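Entry for molybdenum atom complex. Fields follow.
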Amino acid sequence: MASFTRGFAGRRREVDPDLPPGQTLVRDWPVLSAGATPYVDRDEWSFSIATETGAVHTWNWAEVQALGPQDITVDIHCVTHWSKLGMAWRGVSLDRLFEDVDTSYDYCMAHSYGGYTTNVPLAELLDGQAWVAFEADGEPLTPEHGGPARLLVPHLYFWKSAKWLRGIVMQETDEPGFWENAGYNLHGDPWKEERYW
Ligand SMILES: Nc1nc2c(c(=O)[nH]1)N[C@H]1C(S)=C(S)[C@@H](COP(=O)(O)O)O[C@H]1N2
Ligand SMILES: [Mo]
């Protein structure tokens, strides 16, 4: 593995159609966390969606699993310029979780255990674009990478994929979350290099 990494680092991939502009491939998987890692047991974990009516839809671990996890292969792109291509993930589609949720609000704020937040338009979490993910590369997500479960929104920069996900609150307007308040782009499309404001 070490020699492979050395060899890889010396190789330039000038044109990779899967690599957004300004990104570099990595083989390892860096950990980027703004604060301390919260340790949440599966037994204590739950996920909820709260809407403007005051309704709160809540699923515990078993209830999320019962919705039918999918295996997906996606690329991830961090705003700090690293990308990983073809990662195997397992999670439940946000389409399943929003099936019985009635809302006229168009924006979501994802909330994490530990206090992290990030905003995503609802339309970009639906239609097979986002998951509550709990496995990567065939292993349960480690606490450092957001276990027991994290949001996975691979078509946006990876800061939108909130680790230690605990819920989504519907919003009338597109308010900034943690990194968006600190200067990151409100939207974060890696193909348009929407990195900062
Ligand atoms: N709760 C929470 N989620 C988070 C972060 C964080 O600090 N806290 N960092 C974000 C950023 S900037 C990135 S690049 C990815 C990093 O995920 P990783 O550590 O699994 O690579 O998580 C995102 N989700
Ligand atoms: Mo990031």
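NOTE: The chain has four helices and eleven strands.
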